[in-house]
């Protein structure tokens, strides 16, 4: 998911719309904006893409005020239905509050059972709603203390944006799994999942919000707190591999440069005699450029992408995903004919994409097809907010390298090593979460929401 918020700007909801537009790659199922006019909160949300949900300028008349937060969603917990669209907005004894969440709470079911035993009634199937109930039941007086109370109970991955009538609060979990940054636009503060959203609205990047940090913005300005027990941060390395936009700056690095270095490293580890290097667009492009540069094999565009199709993987149904590859990519025969081709992608999840693409490249006349992947085999599911399928659907959890090679019908197959991946982000940046590659989960999962139990 992606979150965006702005405080103290006359065009708050319009800017949030633009911010969400820049974060669309982080979630395409649904989106929403909640604004505050100083006395009341206002909400507009729906299933669909940002441009479709907010395409009509009239909508912004119903989102008045100088503060707003927004969310783009792809579901990790809770099904993809309208009642699960964020931000969630509730009225309770102390006023109204809205929340937008990127991440996944791993002890959600335990807390939910407890809250229900005490009479809470849940309206959605999202883990995010738990936070709202914890807030409502906290005995603390100040908003900051109530938030600390509530969030101290939850474990897992959360970047959160809260909006009340008079305040905006941003929180990043102590492990810092997901990115979150702070910017300034004249006299207003801006918070966004990725810096590409700040760029779009010409906001100045101030800094990343630190793991475990809570930032409260109100009419007096901004204050920062570290209310949680400190742990060693474990930001998600998969943000660098696939999820974040290449123009963003996250976890202290530019994503494009990291991806290109992954490609160079891949070329050092898995060299092959070939005529051209081609990416599977868009996610494979920076790594393919790095591979070509390091190997000296020319970079070509052998597959052209239809840009009006979203990220294949995020389409929620298997049937659609199946179609996806062909809808999205078409080979350039003149580039591929009679060539020995190295094709680069960022990851193999189920193997569907690679298998179809190898076939497509061969049908276009390629002589050899060598697949190179700019991350290690994805063998374990993510419980921290990336929607990887359960273990049995991950091809590399149950198949050897050669079995996968045969399944995708490649002449050869090479994955970037764990060490290679680490070196691409810089050795000084130790402490990343790499659980989907290694199985070393940095935060244990006592119990997720029932439908999402680990498989
Ligand atoms: Fe990121 Fe993988 Fe860790 Fe999930 S398991 S947080 S995708 S590195
Ligand atoms: Mg891809």
TrEMBL record:
The keyword Transferase applies. [4Fe-4S] cluster binds at residues 236, 382, 433, 436. Residues 1-220 form the Glutamine amidotransferase type-2 domain. The keyword Magnesium applies. Its EC number is 2.4.2.14. It comes from Citrifermentans bemidjiense (strain ATCC BAA-1014 / DSM 16622 / JCM 12645 / Bem) (Geobacter bemidjiensis). In the C-terminal section; belongs to the purine/pyrimidine phosphoribosyltransferase family. It comes from the Bacteria. The active site is at 1 (nucleophile). It catalyses: 5-phospho-beta-D-ribosylamine + L-glutamate + diphosphate = 5-phospho-alpha-D-ribose 1-diphosphate + L-glutamine + H2O. Keywords: 4Fe-4S, Glutamine amidotransferase, Glycosyltransferase, Iron, Iron-sulfur, Magnesium, Metal-binding, Purine biosynthesis, Transferase. InterPro entries: GATase_2_dom (IPR017932), Ntn_hydrolases_N (IPR029055), PRTase-like (IPR029057), PRTase_dom (IPR000836), PurF (IPR005854), PurF_N (IPR035584). NCBIfam families: purF (TIGR01134). Its cofactor is Mg(2+); [4Fe-4S] cluster. GO terms for biological process: 'de novo' IMP biosynthetic process; purine nucleobase biosynthetic process. Pathway: Purine metabolism; IMP biosynthesis via de novo pathway; N(1)-(5-phospho-D-ribosyl)glycinamide from 5-phospho-alpha-D-ribose 1-diphosphate: step 1/2. GO terms for molecular function: 4 iron, 4 sulfur cluster binding; amidophosphoribosyltransferase activity; magnesium ion binding. Mg(2+) binds at residues 283, 345-346. This is Amidophosphoribosyltransferase. Catalyzes the formation of phosphoribosylamine from phosphoribosylpyrophosphate (PRPP) and glutamine. CDD domains: GPATase_N (cd00715), PRTases_typeI (cd06223). It is an enzyme of class 2 (transferase).
């Amino acid at each position: 998911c992606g979150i965006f918020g702005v405080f103290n700007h006359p065009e708050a909801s319009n800017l949030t719309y633009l911010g969400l537009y820049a974060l669309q790659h982080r979630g395409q199922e649904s989106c929403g904006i909640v604004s505050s006019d100083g006395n009341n909160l206002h909400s507009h949300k729906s299933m669909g893409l940002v441009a479709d949900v907010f395409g009509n300028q009239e909508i912004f008349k119903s989102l008045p005020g100088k503060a707003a937060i927004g969310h783009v969603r792809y579901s990790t917990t809770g099904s993809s239905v309208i009642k699960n669209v964020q931000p969630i907005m509730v009225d309770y004894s102390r006023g109204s509050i809205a929340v937008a969440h990127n991440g996944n709470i791993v002890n959600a079911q335990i807390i939910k059972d407890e809250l229900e035993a005490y009479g809470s009634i849940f309206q959605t199937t999202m883990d995010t709603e738990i936070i709202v109930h914890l807030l409502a039941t906290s005995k603390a007086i100040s908003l900051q203390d109530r938030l600390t109370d509530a969030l101290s109970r939850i474990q897992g991955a959360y970047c959160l944006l809260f909006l009340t009538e008079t305040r905006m609060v941003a929180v990043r979990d102590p492990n810092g799994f997901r990115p979150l940054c702070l910017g300034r636009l004249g006299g207003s503060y801006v918070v966004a999942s990725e810096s590409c959203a700040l760029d779009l609205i010409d906001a100045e990047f101030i800094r990343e919000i630190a793991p475990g940090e809570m930032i409260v913005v109100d009419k007096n300005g901004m204050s920062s707190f570290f209310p949680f027990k400190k742990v060693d941060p474990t930001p998600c390395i998969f943000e660098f591999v696939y999820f974040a936009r290449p123009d963003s700056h996250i976890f202290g690095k530019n994503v494009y440069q990291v991806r290109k270095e992954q490609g160079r490293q891949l070329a050092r580890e898995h060299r092959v005699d070939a005529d051209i290097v081609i990416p599977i667009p868009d996610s494979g492009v920076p790594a393919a450029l790095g591979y070509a540069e390091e190997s000296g094999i020319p970079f070509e565009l052998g597959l052209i992408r239809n840009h009006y199709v979203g990220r294949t993987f995020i389409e929620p149904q298997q049937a659609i995903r199946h179609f996806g590859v062909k809808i999205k990519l078409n080979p350039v025969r003149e580039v591929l004919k009679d060539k020995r081709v190295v094709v680069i992608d960022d990851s193999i999840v189920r193997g569907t994409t690679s298998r179809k693409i190898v076939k497509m490249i061969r049908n276009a006349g390629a002589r050899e097809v060598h697949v190179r992947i700019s991350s290690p085999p994805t063998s374990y599911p993510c419980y921290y907010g990336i929607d990887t399928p359960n273990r049995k659907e991950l091809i590399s959890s149950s198949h050897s390298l050669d079995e996968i090679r045969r399944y995708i019908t490649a002449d050869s197959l090479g994955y970037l090593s764990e060490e290679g991946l680490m070196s691409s982000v810089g050795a000084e940046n130790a402490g990343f979460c790499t659980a989907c590659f290694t199985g070393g989960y940095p935060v244990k999962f006592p119990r997720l929401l029932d439908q999402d139990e680990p498989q």
